[in-house]
Design brief:
The protein is α/β, with parallel strands linked by helices. It has 30 helices and 16 strands. Among the domains are: 282 residues, Kinesin, CATH 3.40.850; 216 residues, no CATH class. α1 crosses α3, α9 crosses α10 and α22 packs across α26. Bound molecules: adenosine-5'-triphosphate. Pfam families: Kinesin.
């Protein structure tokens, strides 16, 4: 099985506590990160304070189990000088003064191996150690005795102590090897014979030449797809590490690195080399001996064939029971729907094979078999059922013995029944628990399955077990494959296992993974886009590979069932041939000569028949070979696909992790920026408002100034008009009515324009126009209710309405002024007339003085006095009382007075009073002048008041 080289990175603790660290590791995410942010994904990122125990337990247990199961293992330590390579592999030393806690991987490995072997007394083992050093491409045996046999841990430690003392110090490579041969008979009666080697290599630091050669080989291996021939014999080191890189060992590479900034470049080099190793795939297999898996019978069983026969029959019966139990259990598990697709396939296949077995056992195999007899037994152990026929013949020869053996048989039957029932129940309970644990946590330790007891059950679970019957020792058994699969699963790190489970789960779940959805939804950015793209491409590949793997599984299982059919046919044929041959022999040996002649024709036919069957058998065997080759090819392809799927899954996970990181960082920065933007936005809004108001006020000011300018122009025009009209009136002493009105309009308009200019000036100066225009509290208080209502109404008028109203008032004012002027003129004429009359009255008086007595004089004097003072009523009343002899002039005077009394002089309306018609009666009057480019505003309200 292809298992990638596994990588662990160990950081050497900084020499000083407060010294700066330029490399960090995250044991949770298994990432080593440099100060520049460069990340290295490894299988184990060990913490800087990682103890020797932690290091050992974090990845060496699966290696030990693998080694015990017959696989080669390897630990290779890379690193610059003084980074703890030797410390990691061996510890600080093996003298009494050295603490056990400091023991490195090698002593712990030896301790654990001997401990486990002690727990498995059924295993015979021979364990050897070697300790070699490569100094300048020369090999140097540290122990001086080549392979050294160790029977127990104490012996091993003695050699360790010795080697530690004898080893060469300096920059050289050290290779420590433990090789072990094991033999044991499994509870299934199968002899297991395995050989495994564990090598531990403490590599020299750069620039040792062998290291460069190794580096090149690693790169060659990495680039070689399909694998090309690698020349390992370039130097001693690479020859020794042949199995560790691109070979058959289950390899862990440990990168020992320094965290000191001055070693940064060297550290990066080591990390990159480690990462290169990660891409190498080793083909790990169980090293089986050529004589493995052949049934082994104990002495007793050889001596008592009848008992053995019985045992086999009984075992067959129990086996059938066991298989039925398993069937029930599998059906239950299938119904629970908690299995992945691959598991469902496996279980379905198992059930299918079971059904086939049932058919076979019920005697419906074929006509050939039927001819032979009813006792078929299981196809795989068909030859073992032969002794049953023997027992028949024995029965004929010795019937007495039979009756005795029947009682013994009954006793034994009961004993074995009890024993098998117990065993069966226990086995199933164990398997069931293991299986459920596997479903729950996917965390079966290899040690659980590596024991000899677990093998039969695993064989029963695996269809590949059939291959053993076909070609013993040539390929791996189902149990072994299962074991390797689990070793591979263990070796891939718990994270990868999770991924596999996830991927299985996902197959059942049509909903895409959350992270995937999230990833696809991610915010657009070049980096995220790239990740998304990569993720999609990898995902597509991954899905295709999964489909292909499933297809291959199906193909394999159909080939296997085909194979099974053919094997059954072969067995049947062999039996037939065997029986026919026996028949021929029997004829030729036992019969008389005459009978022989009689039967020679029959024999001839039988021989022909045998030949025919033999030809058929050959064809079947050829087909079997072909199918086997095909299966092997498919399985290899599937294994490669499986590894690729796991790799893709890892890649997908990495990508999703990266994208999550990017996304998190992005979200954080987006949050930060959003906050900042909100802040800036509010500031901007404030500033914009200020600016707007400033701009507005500037614009407004400009507008106002423009308006004032225009108003002034209009005022000038009006003023000109007024002047010309006034001039005309001066010249011609009077004006036409329309001209008079025009003059008044001009004057009023000029006054209105002045007010408007004053108003706009107020606005420019920043005085609230409303303050000047709107009614102040005083005004409001002083107003009558009617006025207040009127003001309220005016406030609600629209612009146009206000314009119309103002225009009307303007016309009214002009009208009033016109009327006023007319009245003034009338009054002036009347005054003139009164003066004329007074002159005439005086003349008349003088005339009367001369003609009348003094009494009248006083009377007329008082009349005149009242007329002069304007008290016409009084003058009139006096006039009434005048004598009848009063002159005609006096009478005319009286008439005129009466006329004047009926038309009193019109009241003079000062023009400024017209302003009171406007709502703002106390509008401030400001005089705006320019003085050295500054506006000087003189408040004139007081003056107005005085007016
Ligand atoms: N993780 C660690 N914890 C405690 N001590 C350590 C650690 N790593 C290394 N040391 C100590 O650092 C020193 C150097 O370690 P070691 O000799 O193992 O380095 P090295 O890489 O094998 O060096 P060289 O290449 O020269 O053989 C030793 O004294 C060892 O005890």
């Amino acid at each position: 099985m292809d298992i990638p080289v596994q990588i662990a990175v160990r950081l050497k603790p900084p020499s000083l506590e407060d010294s700066t660290q330029c490399i960090f590791s995250n044991p949770v995410t298994q990432i080593v990160i440099t100060e520049s942010g460069q990340t290295f994904h490894v299988n184990r990122a060990l913490p800087v304070d990682c103890t020797q125990v932690y290091l050992f337990s974090s990845f060496m247990i699966p290696q030990i189990n693998c080694f015990l199961d017959g696989c080669d293992t390897s630990v290779v330590v890379f690193g610059q000088s003084k980074t703890g390579k030797t410390y990691t592999l061996f510890g600080s030393g093996f003298e009494c003064i050295h603490s056990e806690c400091d023991q490195g991987i090698v002593p712990r490995f030896l301790t654990e191996i001997f401990h486990k072997l002690n727990q498995m007394p059924e295993r015979e083992f021979i364990l050897h150690i070697t300790w070699m050093q490569v100094v300048n491409n020369n090999i140097f045996d540290v122990l001086g005795a080549g392979l050294v046999r160790c029977c127990n841990v104490e012996e091993a430690f003695q050699y360790l102590q010795m080697g530690w003392r004898q080893r060469c110090q300096g920059n050289n490579h050290t290779v420590f090897t433990v090789s072990m041969e094991q033999k044991w008979v499994g509870s299934n009666g199968i002899l297991n014979h395995r050989m495994s080697t564990a090598s531990f290599c403490d590599l020299a630091a750069y620039p040792e030449p062998g290291l460069f050669v190794l580096e090149n080989i690693i790169k060659e291996l990495l680039a070689g797809n399909p694998p090309k021939h690698i020349n390992y014999d370039q130097c001693i080191l690479t020859a020794m590490l042949r199995d560790s890189f691109g070979g058959r060992a289950f390899t862990w590479v440990i990168g020992c690195i320094s965290t000191e900034p001055e070693d940064y470049q060297d550290t990066l080099k080591i990390l990159n080399l480690c990462l290169c190793c990660r891409g190498i795939k080793n083909f790990v297999t169980v090293n089986l001996f050529a004589d493995n898996n052949t049934p082994v019978y104990t002495e007793k069983s050889v001596l008592q064939p009848a008992d053995n026969n019985f045992n086999i029959q009984f075992a067959t019966a129990q086996w059938i029971k066991l298989v039925s139990n398993a069937e029930g259990l599998f059906n239950k598990i299938l119904q629970s729907k908690s299995l992945s697709d691959a598991d469902i396939n496996q279980v379905s296949e198992w059930l299918f094979l079971k059904a086939e077995c049932d058919e076979c056992l019920s005697g419906d195999v074929g006509t050939d078999n039927k001819e032979i007899g009813p006792k078929q037994g299981l196809p795989r152990i068909a030859e073992d059922t032969e002794p049953s026929e023997l027992s028949e013949s024995d029965a004929e020869s010795d019937s007495e013995e039979d009756s005795h053996s029947e009682t013994v048989f009954q006793d034994k039957l009961e004993k074995y029944m009890e024993y098998f029932r117990e065993k069966n129940d226990q086995l199933f309970a164990d398997r069931c628990e293991e299986y459920l644990n596997h479903i729950d946590s996917d965390d079966i330790t290899i040690s659980e399955i590596s024991g000899s007891q677990s093998l039969p059950t695993l064989t029963s679970q695996s269809n590949s077990g059939r291959r053993r019957t076909i070609q013993p020792g040539e390929s791996l058994s189902g149990a072994e494959l299962e074991l390797l699969r689990k070793v591979a699963a263990k070796a891939i790190s718990p994270e990868s296992q999770k991924i596999i489970i996830e991927s299985h789960k996902k197959d059942l779940d049509p909903e895409p993974k959350l992270i995937e959805r999230e990833l696809l939804k991610m915010i657009d950015s070049p980096k995220t886009d790239d990740i998304c793209k990569k993720y999609r491409v990898t995902k597509e590949k991954y899905t295709q590979k999964q489909i292909l793997a499933r297809k291959l599984s199906k193909e394999i299982s159909s080939s296997q069932s085909q194979l099974k059919e053919l094997i059954n046919l072969c067995i049947a044929k062999e039996r037939l041939i065997h029986d026919l041959s026996r028949g021929v022999c029997h004829n030729s040996v036992n019969k008389q000569y005459s009978e022989k002649v009689e039967n020679s024709v029959i024999d001839y036919d039988m021989v022909k028949e045998i030949r025919r069957h033999e030809t058929n058998l050959k064809t079947y065997k050829k087909q079997i070979e072909q199918i086997k080759r095909q299966i092997r090819k498919d399985e290899k392809r599937k294994n490669t696909l499986d590894v690729e799927i796991v790799k893709d899954k890892l890649k997908l996970d990495e990508l999703s992790e990266t994208s999550t990181d990017v996304k998190d960082r992005k979200t954080n920065s987006i949050k930060h920026f959003t906050h900042r933007i909100t802040q800036l936005d509010s500031i901007l809004k404030e500033k914009t408002n200020d600016l707007e108001s400033l701009e507005l006020s500037k614009e407004k000011e400009l507008m106002l100034r423009k308006e004032i300018k225009n108003l002034r122009k209009t005022r000038e025009c009006l003023h000109d008009q007024r002047c010309s009209l006034g001039h005309k009136r001066k010249i011609y002493k009077s004006l036409s009515d329309s001209e008079e009105r025009k003059l008044l309009e001009c004057e009023e308009a000029i006054e209105a324009i002045d007010t408007a200019i004053e108003y706009k000036n107020n606005l420019i100066c920043g005085k609230s126009p409303s303050a000047s225009l709107s009614d102040s509290q005083d005004n409001r208080d002083s107003r009558s209710r009617g006025e207040q209502m009127l003001m309220a109404r005016l406030d609600k008028l629209s612009h146009d309405e206000m314009k119309t109203l103002l225009y009307r008032y303007f016309q009214k004012v002009v009208d009033l002024r016109g009327a006023c002027a007319a009245l003034e003129a009338g009054a002036a004429a009347a005054a003139e007339e009164a003066a004329a009359w007074r002159t005439r009255a005086a003349a008349a008086w003088r005339h009367a003085q001369r003609a009348r007595p003094h009494a009248h004089t006083r009377h007329f004097q008082s009349i005149h006095k009242y007329v002069d003072s304007g008290n016409t009523e009084r003058a009139l009343s006096l006039g009434m009382t005048t004598d009848s002899e009063t002159s005609d002039d006096a009478m005319r005077l009286v008439d005129r007075m009466k006329q004047l009394a009926r038309c009193p002089p019109p009241p003079v309306i000062p023009s400024q009073n017209l302003r009171q018609l406007m709502p703002a009666t106390n509008m401030p009057v400001a005089k705006v002048t320019k003085e050295k480019n500054k506006l000087v505003i003189i408040q004139q309200q007081q003056q107005n008041k005085r007016h």
